[in-house]
Write a structure and sequence with these properties.
There is one protein chain. This protein has one helix and 58 strands. The two termini are 16 Å apart. With 676 residues, it is an all-beta fold. A hairpin with a 4-residue loop joins strand 10 and strand 11. 2% of the residues lie in helices and 47% in strands. The strands form 15 sheets. Strands 1, 5, 6, 52, 55, 56 and 58 form a seven-stranded antiparallel beta sheet that branches. It is elongated, with a radius of gyration of 34 Å.
Length: 676
């Protein structure tokens, strides 16, 4: 058949688009979108490749539900797997320790965490905060040792308040002639006449204090000794330690008023967090403080520790580096769900997103909460960092948002980055982002849904690349995390048996494991985990299969010295139907047929094609046949392949690129010739 003009697509950077966009041919993302994208990763330069396979690390308990990364101060990295009250510690190849975290079982899905150096802190509002540490002697789990928690008035009758007390000593003042003023926490009194008679001096000071707006009735003024006055800030409204008292002589130069704080004030109430009142839901390390928030009984509040003293919350430290409690001025019922260290401190609540305008958290300066957007966050889904922005799942569980600061707006802007593929994100359960592993790659995010499905997204926001794709395997995805080695680790469920698997560059199989023989052999034993299941084998860089495992073994047609076995799910890439415009605002609607496809591939060893969802047919990549003495995976092809003679008319024809056997797949462009 003579070639005819075709529609070329060399960029796929919009990823899989929702069905509602199939007729939106004028949308700028239509030209770079796909009808279906499964088990591929979009390259920022435009093409796509087969996603990396999953290496089997080990078996997990049947109720394993969360993975948390742990980056130790000595440069070692671990994955902490939580199952009920058990925490397993996994290094690069195996499990190294097991711990019991009492009371954790029912809270694992909603846990939040913070980690610094060799300490990991686990938060949940109904669980006393736990601390996991890597010590020279091994792993240790205990309760977080909160120190000097502040009191809060929850409305009960409290008798544990301590009034602040100050002592004033008058030196060189003359009765009847000397005038002085007092400064009480920034408020200066009217002029007071000094008297050597104690009762008259008390009366004069009391009258002056009564006129101050910041002093409530109930305080007491006494005369413990000659020329001395005692101020006790008792009474409702005067609680706490927020008092500073000083004096100034108005009309005499050789006199002075000495001011001494005798007793720090303590507000009546009960500890802001406790077994009775509950615990914080979230926290983070920021500015050398441990900031906690989302308390069960005070959900709209957060509280930083003393600077460089992570567990000390003693409010009696009055300097800028002291601890303090911050009840946010937000809508009722709004709960702090995540506190994230970023360019500024970020607070995610059930209804909105905020950031603290001041980058230095100070007790002496009230924090300014700036609202960025009103979406809320899904409880238990971690916030991931990408290119200096924070990615979070909206409270609806079906939208992925990005929070990024812009100098142009002077604010954190919230963007819906899953707008083009909303059908792929429903009931999100977990999320992580892997940084680019090569200079030509972009960051790759993974989203795990509650139903066990997973999604991959290529992210390079500066180039407007946000490409979603499906991720399928022979099992259900339960959790994901990125560890310090920049590896994506997964918990997968294979018919009730859960495993820890990690994404590995260049790996073609999932649940993959290697077997090496001293003497080449064809029988591969030790595969009982795959009994009754279909697997593939890559031996000495040749692909064999599929095999159904019987009695824990398979037999290859040739002997091999090294083999990788595992399960496999093919990639599936379907193009959008070609546009039908034949003029301005004029389209031609009738059945059409795609008869020829040109696929430009790079270092590819396996390729199959179909049209309109029909059966796949293998594409012969080697025009003159393969080399008999060269392994299959060493014969990658880089060329443009023409496939013609395709059949089948359809209202909206499309092409599907896939594979019938494992192999490398790198596609640079697809050109479609159609009879419209």
């Amino acid at each position: 058949m003579v070639s005819s003009p075709g529609r070329m697509q060399s960029a796929f950077t919009a990823g899989e688009l929702a069905e509602i966009l199939e007729e939106r041919t004028t949308l700028k993302y239509f030209a770079t979108g796909l009808k279906r994208a499964e088990n591929i990763v979009i390259a920022p330069q435009g093409g796509f490749r087969l996603r990396d396979g999953l290496r089997l690390i080990g078996d997990l308990p049947a109720d394993a539900a969360r993975i948390l990364p742990f980056d130790a101060s000595n440069g070692s990295y671990f994955d902490l797997v939580f199952a009920s009250d058990t925490c397993q510690v996994w290094n690069a190849t195996s499990m190294t320790a097991t711990m019991t975290v009492a009371g954790l079982a029912s809270f694992v899905p909603e846990l939040t965490f913070a980690q610094r150096l060799d300490t990991l802190v686990l938060f949940h509002e109904n669980l006393k905060t736990k601390r996991v540490r890597l010590m020279p002697s091994g792993w240790v789990v205990d309760d977080l040792p909160y120190e000097k928690l502040p009191n809060y008035d929850y409305g009960a009758n409290y008798t544990n308040g301590v009034p602040a007390e100050w002592r004033l000593e008058f030196v060189g003042l003359e009765s009847g002639t000397t005038i002085f003023v007092l400064n009480v926490s920034g408020q200066e009194t009217q002029s007071i006449a000094y008297s050597s008679t104690p009762s008259a001096l008390i009366a004069n000071i009391t009258a002056a204090l009564d006129n101050l707006p910041n002093v409530r009735p109930g305080y007491t003024v006494t005369n413990p000794a000659a020329n001395k006055i005692q101020l006790k800030f008792s009474g409702a409204g005067n609680e706490g330690d927020g008092w500073a008292v000083s004096g100034r002589i108005v009309n005499k130069a050789d006199a002075a008023i000495l001011s001494v704080k005798q007793t720090p004030g303590v507000s009546p109430g009960e500890a802001v967090i406790s077994e009775t009142r509950g615990w914080p839901q979230c926290g983070c390390f920021y500015n050398q403080r441990l900031i906690i928030g989302g308390f069960r009984s005070l959900p709209n509040a957060w509280m930083p520790s003393r600077q460089a003293d992570y567990f000390n919350y003693d409010e009696r430290f009055t300097e800028a580096n002291g601890p303090f409690l911050v009840p946010m001025d937000i809508a009722g019922g709004e709960k702090v769900e995540a506190i994230v260290p970023s360019l500024n401190l970020l607070l995610f609540t059930t209804q909105a997103e905020y950031w603290i305008a001041e980058r230095a958290i100070s007790k002496t300066e009230a924090p300014n909460h700036v609202q960025s957007s009103r979406n809320g966050i899904r409880r238990g889904v971690p916030v991931a960092e990408n290119e200096g922005a924070s990615l979070w799942c909206h409270a609806n569980g079906s939208t992925l948002g990005e929070l990024r600061y812009t100098d142009q707006d002077g604010n954190y802007l919230a963007t819906n980055i899953s707008l083009l593929a909303p059908h792929l994100l429903e009931d999100v359960r977990d999320m992580a982002v892997r940084r680019a592993t090569a200079s030509m790659d972009g960051n790759v995010g993974c989203v795990v849904r509650k139903d066990g499905q997973a999604r991959l997204v290529t992210l390079l926001r500066e180039q407007e690349v946000t490409a979603f794709a499906r991720m399928s395997s022979d099992g259900l995805f339960k959790a994901v995390a990125r560890n310090g080695r920049n590896e994506l680790s997964f918990i997968l469920d294979h018919a009730g048996k859960r495993t820890l698997e990690r994404m590995e560059n260049g790996l073609l199989l999932d649940e993959a494991s290697d077997v090496t023989f001293g003497v080449p052999q064809a029988t591969i034993p030790g595969l009982s985990r795959f009994n009754g299941r279909q697997i593939w084998a890559i031996g000495d860089r040749n692909v064999f299969g599929p095999f159904t495992v019987i009695a824990g073994q398979i037999s290859l047609p040739v002997k091999v010295s090294r083999v990788t076995v595992g399960t496999w799910r093919p990639p599936v890439v379907s193009t959008l139907p070609p546009p039908r415009e034949i003029g301005p605002n004029t389209v031609l609607k009738r059945k059409a047929r795609i008869h020829t496809v040109h696929v430009s591939v790079l270092d590819t060893t396996s390729l199959a094609i179909s049209t309109n969802g029909g059966p796949l047919r293998e594409v012969d990549l080697h025009r003159w046949g393969v080399a008999a003495d060269v392994p299959e995976l060493d014969q990658g092809v880089t060329t443009s392949i023409k496939i013609s003679g395709l059949r089948g008319y359809a209202d909206a024809p499309f092409v599907t690129i896939s594979q019938l056997r494992p192999g490398r797949l790198n596609v640079r462009a697809i050109t479609v010739e159609a009879a419209l």
